[in-house]
Amino acid sequence: MARWKNPSLLENERERRRQYQGRLVQKLPDGGTGGVDPRDLDRALLEQVHPPAPILDVVREKCLDCSGYQPGEVDRCTAIACSLWPYRFGTNPFSNRKGNAEALIRARGAKQGKGPLADEDAPGEDHGSGAPALPGAEGTP
Ligand code: SF4
After folding, report:
1. Nearest to 87 by CA among 67, 108, 57
2. Pocket test for ligand 1, best of 82, 83, 87 (most atoms within 8 A of CB)
3. Which of 8, 18, 70, 84 is the most buried (most CB within 10 A)?
4. Which long-range contacts (CB under 8 A, 24 or more apart) does 77-84 make?
5. Which of these, 37, 36, 35, 92, lies nearest to 59 by C-alpha position?
6. Are 88 and 79 within 8 A, CB to CB?
7. Distance between Cα 124 and ligand 1 center (Å)
8. How far apart are CA 100 and CA 140, in angstroms?
9. pLDDT by residue (tens digit) across 89-121?
10. pLDDT at 125 over 50
11. Is the CB of 74 under 6 A from ligand 1?
12. 70 in contact with ligand 1, CB cutoff 6 A
C-alpha cells in the first residue's frame, strides 16, 4: 500500500528519514549547511533513507505534507501555479494509460512547439481551456 494512503504512516516515515539528518546534511565552507547530492550517495544508503517509489506517489506524498496531511485539502488545492498541481492526486492526467488520450495528444503538441496544451489541437472537441473567465481579462493569455 502506498504510504500516502495512510497519512499517519507517512508522518512516521518522515520522522524515520529525519534520523539520517546527520549523514545527509553537511557543513559547508561558508559555515552554512547543505543537503548532500543524492546522485553522489551510496545507493544502499539512499535506498535506506528514501526507498524507491513511483514518482507520482512521491508527488502525492509531498502534497499531503504541504497540506498538513489532510487529503481533502489536497483535493481542494487552489495553488494552480504549483508545478505539482496537475499530479496532486497521485496520477498523471496526461497519461493515455488512464484513457485520457486526448490530453496526451495535446501535451505532445505543446512539447513540439504548438503552444501550451492548446485545446484547438484536439480535433472535433471543444472543451474550452478549463480556466474560468476573469472579469476584464479579455485578450489576456
Ligand atoms: S499542488 Fe497544492 S498541495 Fe500539492 S504541493 Fe502544490 S500547493 Fe501543495
Report:
1. 57
2. 82
3. 84
4. 84/59
5. 92
6. no
7. 33
8. 28
9. 999 999 876 556 676 677 778 777 765 544 443
10. no
11. yes
12. no
